[in-house]
Specification:
disordered N terminus, mainly alpha, membrane, single chain, transmembrane
Length: about 220
């Protein structure tokens, strides 16, 4: 009996590997190198972004706003204006009193004026501190205001001829005392702080007496 021929074994079909299927432009090893380089670059960029975000503050610093000075409950704007201006007026008059304290016609009156103005300044500054205000000497210094004794006024008295000196001195004193009594009257009418109003009342009385005691020339 004839033997049938055994079928020849079929050759196994294998799928081509990616390397074999890839175009033959660049070898696989070179492509792997580029992929690794790209991965390293991505990691470095991400790390830099994290560092920058960590170092940067969440909000840019903002300079604090300067708060305007607030008035206390005891000092009204009128009180504060009165205290600052009256301190300047009384202070400006002291050099005039010192200039005239040896004048025979004014010596006794100037002694009273010097002592009284110094006491008034103490009262005014005490009222300012108690009310929470702040003295501002530069606010009115050198301004030609009613009651302010300026350097020109001092020079006019100092340089006056002997026969005119007393008249010029009395005129300067009268202008100062008239200005301060008007200011004290305004504080008594429109002020609110008890200490400031008490100082104004004291000044009004004392300066009224000085005005009345000025010699007639």
């Amino acid at each position: 009996m004839a033997l049938s021929a055994e079928p020849e074994p079929e050759e196994a079909v294998t799928a081509p590997s990616p390397a074999a299927a890839a175009p033959s432009g660049e070898p696989p090893e070179k492509r792997d190198i580029w992929r690794r380089i790209l991965a390293v670059v991505v990691v470095v960029v991400a790390a830099l972004a994290v560092v920058v975000l960590w170092a940067r503050p969440a909000h840019e610093p903002v300079a604090p706003k300067a708060e305007p000075p607030s008035l206390t409950a005891s000092l009204s704007p009128t009180d504060l204006a009165f205290l600052n201006l009256m301190i300047s007026l009384d202070t400006s008059a002291l050099p005039l009193f010192e200039l005239l304290k040896d004048d025979p016609a004014l010596a006794a009156l100037m002694g009273t004026a010097i002592a009284g103005h110094r006491d008034e300044l103490a009262d005014l500054r005490k009222a300012m501190a108690a009310g929470g205000g702040q003295e501002n000497p530069a606010e009115h210094a050198g301004h030609d205001l009613p009651g302010m004794v300026l350097e020109d006024d001092l020079a006019a008295v100092r340089d006056a001829p002997a026969d005119q000196r007393l008249a010029r001195a009395v005129a300067a004193l009268r202008e100062h005392l008239t200005g301060t009594t008007h200011l004290a009257t305004s504080e008594g009418t429109a002020g609110a702080d008890p200490a400031a109003k008490a100082a104004a009342a004291k000044i009004l009385e004392a300066h009224g007496k000085l005005l009345a005691a000025l010699p007639t020339v």
